[in-house]
Design goal:
The protein is an alpha/beta fold and 210 residues long. The protein has three domains: 42 residues, no CATH class; 96 residues, Resolvase, N-terminal catalytic domain (Rossmann fold); 54 residues, no CATH class. Helices cover 56% and strands 14% of the residues. The strands form two sheets. It has a four-stranded parallel beta sheet, sandwiched between helices. A two-stranded antiparallel sheet has the order 1-2. Strand 1 and strand 2 form a beta hairpin. Helix 8 packs antiparallel against helix 9. It is elongated.
Length: 210
């Protein structure tokens, strides 16, 4: 099919499709008229991209209040995953910060580095709590991709940490930082109490069914 039709079919820009063809990532030929005809195998655009990706980066992140040893655990799991997939990892990025923080320097540097064709993360929210689809779409337009190792939701612990950060940010804007901290201390205690009750209830349910 024509390269233009292929790009439309796969939901990518013509420029991206042309770049893939020019780099030899799409089988095809160019006619004397200049028209490019591609003959893709039974693979999606993302699969073609990943098969030919030369530079793979791992991105591991924990929030500030998480156990820092989890950062190394993430990185080790991702390295093992990439090895099993046949990826050659060229960068291992580890960062500490909230998933709602859009000023993480290591992640920004990784996104700016267009030599990296594939970014592998453990969960979507390890990359960002909000706006994952925007990043995924923008990288695809550059002929790059994000691969998520585990599609399951991440732990409640980090979700609560991000919720706390969001509430603190709004409280600080409304009441000032000192009052915001007092408000957050109350909210955190209440969240911890709720979590303790839910944990106890779950144990009682397990004992009842056991």
């Amino acid at each position: 099919m024509k390269l233009k039709d292929y790009a439309q079919q796969q939901g990518i820009s013509y420029r991206t499709a042309w770049r893939w063809w020019k780099a030899g990532k799409l089988p095809g030929r160019q006619m004397d008229t200049g028209t490019i005809l591609v003959e893709p195998e039974s693979m999606s655009a993302g699969e073609i991209q990943r098969r030919h990706v030369a530079h793979v980066a791992i991105y591991a992140r924990v929030s500030s209040n998480e156990n820092k040893s989890n950062l190394d655990r993430q990185a080790e799991l991702l390295v093992a995953y990439c090895t099993a997939r046949g990826y050659q990892v060229t960068k291992v990025i580890k960062e500490t910060g909230s998933g709602i923080n859009d000023a993480r320097p290591k992640l920004l540097g990784l996104l700016e580095d267009q030599t990296i064709g594939l970014i592998v993360v453990e969960h979507k929210d390890r990359l960002t709590r909000f706006g994952f689809r925007y990043l995924d779409t923008l990288l695809k337009a550059q002929g790059r991709a994000i691969e998520v190792m585990n599609q399951a939701e991440n732990s409640t612990e980090e979700l609560l940490a991000d919720l706390t950060a969001i509430v603190y940010s709004f409280c600080a804007r409304l009441f000032g930082q000192r009052r915001a901290q007092r408000t957050m201390d109350v909210i955190v205690r209440e969240l911890e109490a709720i979590e303790a009750v839910e944990t106890q209830r779950a144990k009682e349910d397990d004992n009842a069914t056991g």
